Amino acid sequence: MSFVLYILAALTVAGGLAAVLLKNTVHCALALTVAFAGLALLFLELDAQFAGFAQILIYIGAVAILVVFAILLTRGSETPKGSAYSHSPLVGLVIAACVFAVLGWAVLHSTAQLPPGTTSATPTVTVADIGNALMTRYVLPLEIVALLLTAALIGAVIVAMHEKEGSR
Amino acid sequence: MIEKADQIFVLLGHWLVSFLPAALQKPALVLLAVVAIIVTFPALFAITVLLERKGLGRMQNRYGPNRVGPYGLFQPVADGIKSLTKEDIVPLSADAVVHFLAPVLLVVVVFMGYAVLPIGRNMTLVNLDAGILFFFAIGASSELSVFMAGWSSRNKYSLLGAMRAVAQMISYEVPLLMSSLAVVMITGSLNANRIVDAQNQYTYGLPHWYIFTPWGFAGFLLFAVAATAETNRSPFDLPEGESELVAGYFTEYSGFKFALFFLGEYVGMMGISGLGTTLFLGGYSAPLQVLGFVPSWAWFIGKIMLSMCVFIWVRGTLPRLRQDQLMNFAWKFVLPLSLLNLFVAAAWRFMGQGFLRWVVCSAVLLIAYVVMARVGMKREHFGPRSYRYAE
Amino acid sequence: MAGPLWLIPTVPIVASGVIALLKQPRRKLASNLAIGSMVFSLLLSLVAFAHVLSGWMHGALVRETSNFTWIHVGTTPLDLGWVLDPLSAVMLVMVTFVGLLIFIYSTGYMAHDENYTRFFCFLSLFAGAMLGVVIANSILLLFMCWELVGLTSYLLIGFWYLKPSAAAAAKKAFLTTRVGDVFFLLGIVWLFGQTGTLLFYHGGAGSMETHALTALLLERSAFGLSAATAIGLLIFAGAAGKSGQFPLHVWLPDAMEGPTPVSALIHAATMVAAGVYLIARVYPLMQAGMPAGGTTTALSVVTWVGAFTALFAALIAVAQNDIKRILAYSTVSQLGYMMAGLGVGGVAVGMFHLITHAFFKALLFMGAGSVIHGCHEEQDVRRMGGLRSRMPLTFGTYAVGMMALSGVPILFSGFWSKDGILEAAQHFRLSKGPFYMLVFGALLTAFYMTRQVSYVFFGSYRGHAHPHESPKSMTLPLAILAFFAVALGAIGTPAWPWFRGFLNSTPVAFGLSGFDEPGLLALMGTSTVVVFIGLGLGWWLYGNKSPHADQPDVLEAAAPPIWNALRDRLYIDEFYGATVIAFYWWWAKVADWLDRDIWGGAVAGVSWLFKLGARLNRFLDANVVDGTFDKGCEEISVGGGLLSRMQSGRVQTYLRLLALAVVLLAVILIWSSRA
Amino acid sequence: MTPLSGYLLVAALLFAIGLAGALTRRNAILVLIGIELMLNAANLNLIAFWRYGPHPEALTGMMFAIFSIAVAAAEAAVGLGLVIQIHRHAQTTDLDAINRMKG
Known about the structure:
The complex is a heterotetramer. Helix content of chain A is 71%, strand content 0%. By secondary structure, chain A is mostly helical. The longest helix of chain A is centred in the middle third of the chain and has 25 residues, at 49-73. Chain D is an all-alpha fold. The mean pLDDT of chain D is 83. The radius of gyration of chain D is 17 Å and the shape is elongated. Chain D has three helices and no strands. Classes of the chains: A mainly alpha, B mainly alpha, C mainly alpha, D mainly alpha.
């Protein structure tokens, strides 16, 4: 239970909160990237180097940018006039709180029963190992994901494509 | 003696930290290295700026800066002082926080990239197992700062410039990655040092640089194009196209923040040329075995400066593209070719030694290049606008 | 050798299939494909021909077949197969060769047509089908290809389907030939029923071989005819339909609406000859039980019909003004000659005329096409004239063709082939009628050809266009055909009756002894005289003077009624119109009346009853059922409203419910697990 | 309290935050942002379990995380495309305004 974890957790949670609470949409997006960065650092803290960098590359490099683009394309960049929240936000909050309560309770309850011996032992996982695993044991999921990504790419393009005049 | 010259900085560092208690030595060493980087590359940046201004001047039949000091050698210093002392204007309607954070983030990110570059033998700040990936991840997040700068300025030129820049960076990041992947694939490692070591060997005194293989050569060209676009250098400098958007995403920046952007841009260029050097030009290894006595870091710096000169040369030579041409070029020409290059590299790997693979690989790449260029020209892929901003 | 024979028709068909897939702009490729396939077929045909020839040289009758069972219908197998014998070999070479020339010609003629590719698609499809007819050893296969040929002919006549006349002509051709084909089919079925085999030659078991034939002879049918005769007649009806024999000739002249290459290939050289070929193919059946030196009923019918057609069509041809119609009618009459030749003189005589005619008639048609092309789609001979100087090449070749057709002695093939027919007709036992008809026909032939040529090529030009010589691709085939129109005569002279020998596979030797036959020289003299009378007459009436386009024809001035009768094709079409078509019209009316008034009335009554019932029903509904039903509906809708309140259409509401559900589930899970 | 539970709690908190965002924000894009947060929380869980699980060398959790990252990228692309399309049709991204499916 290191000191770094506290900092990173604080950073991440702060970013997440900001992303959810801020009024200006673009600020939310930027805060989201902060959260992403925090998560990436958490991954690194967990010795998951590859996952961490992948997180940065994909989420900060791609998803965040996508979000920003979407915001600008939907003219969402200027802060909304009325309330930023939908009807009866309290209900939503309560429900979220319930979920957190359940999850937290489950976590604490279950980890309490965990045998304490299995915590240390830093795994030495090189990128090569990951590559091998991807190419051998997880090759089928890899292919499927590749297919999915292609489909998603095409789908996204078609969905967001600009209809020509008169087609609608 | 040669060994000493080669390792001079390492030894120096160790000597310096040796005064500290053992517990602090390791962090101190790191700190030292960081400082060294943060000092060295801005210095190079100053030289480059001078070089660029003078070189461009020559190319355009005029003297460059020649007033400050002998041959205007102190021009960068003057510029630095000027930009430091200038008033820092922040537009009233601008989003102050983001407006401030943008250049900082850029510079930070850009400098972070150097962490994994082997500047010389045993001169890698953090020898990461996934170094190249790290570099790209960091590079990707520089787009964010560009966007922040453009958006926070509340200025349509800035915004358009930023959107252009981001779109362009995203588009060219893909071929950049793809062309580097070939190297990674061949080396079998994402570790920069390993990649350099793989190239740092000689037959008949000639190096095993990847640029001296068909796929490596093609990959290097693609990488160079993508890198030029990635760093918004001409001919891909639309985001800063003075004729259309005053100065692109840092129109509203002045004083030190502008200087930071300036710095960030050039240091980023150096960083990415450092990556290119590492990937294709054998990193810090000497071009000929007989030149091995020259210290490795000198080679690395030399190669970086050389590529900077190329950047300058290109800027002085080529006209600027149009936005849709830019996009089509990325998606319809560079990306397919880099994908093909990946396959060719794989083929190269499995065609064993011998002469045949040279012929086959070069032939495939050459034919693909010619055909695609022809088709692209005929179909006028560089034709009507294909890219839209917010409607 | 018979094995790979199937390639010959298949290749053009495949080519046509490929062309059908081509896009409109790929014109060059399309024509090249078609021509290439034809070249291929021609080469194969030549190989086959050489094979047969060598066999004949060694004094053996070459008849190789390759048969296989196509499908079993119930237990009876339907056999297909192909045969290679002198007949098919000669026919193959002729069809492929003429076809190839006409293909080449078409590239020039159709150069400006936007449906170029379609044209070549149809053309090579036709070529394939025709070749299929030629090599067929199974009457079923023959019939299939026969119909396919009919189809392509229909498609090509109606090629310019935007012209109503063309569409009508296509329909007419299709239906008229159908009439013949129905009989043909009957014949086929009967033959199959009798002999139990579809194959012509099947090592003794074929329907054209003695075993089957004798059986057929013994079989009696209506009017005391032997089955052989009856079947023969039925098949001849089919042949008459295709070959435009009286009374089914009406479609052929109208078929000239199609593009000229089509007229040349299909309606002069090959398809119309298919009928003749069919008769030649089933000749054993036709002549089954022929007494020595005598003839059979079937053959005599063939003879009479042929001779009559020859004369009758020649008469009509005299009074036509459309350059292509003249040729069309002359084709009909020449086909009559062939039929008569088959009837009186056996296969060789008819086939020889078929071959020579194919060449010079194709030549004439293509010449006419060249003229039309040169005069910018002008077809009326009266609006031409003096083209001799304007298109010399066309004129030269056309003259050759014309002389071959009218049978100018010694030099031209037409003379020898026609002479063979006349000679055979002279020895016809039953009567001399056919002979005189044919002789008179020959005279008329010479006459109307002279008339046409002098109209078109002599005198002064009376049109408004600016005639010009046609491109190489059109004139070159003309030249080649002209050469053959002359040269082919050499293989059929009495002195060296090579062709006959080849077909009957009997050895031939060169020797003037061939002329010693009694009456042969006299006959040749007669025909020569006749021909020259025709030519002279024609030249005297029309030669070199150029009547104005609208002023009446010389003969018209002389005898208007006859002229009009001839010009209106002896009112055959009108006759059909007044009888057959009128009958159908009337019958259709009757059927319509029945439908409308009897059945229609009944249906109307029933429906009225139903309507009544429906009205009643509706009344009940409106006043009894609905009252209660609507109430129920309201109740339900009220209840539904409550439920639908939840369906707020807001995504987040759903999300919330989802999350809530998850929470509840988790809680339940945990609780249950603890308990 | 073990480090594992620490990470898990962070993940749970992040998940709850994301959920709250998704449930309460008006703007469709922000709802998507919330969903992204939830996904990331899940990733964190996976990685944490991988790290403190009995068999880290089996890489299972890591792989799941990587795959889910990849899938999340696709999800984001499609989702944002949909949002843009919705904006084109309804001229708004306000989820309360888009209730055409109201029963």
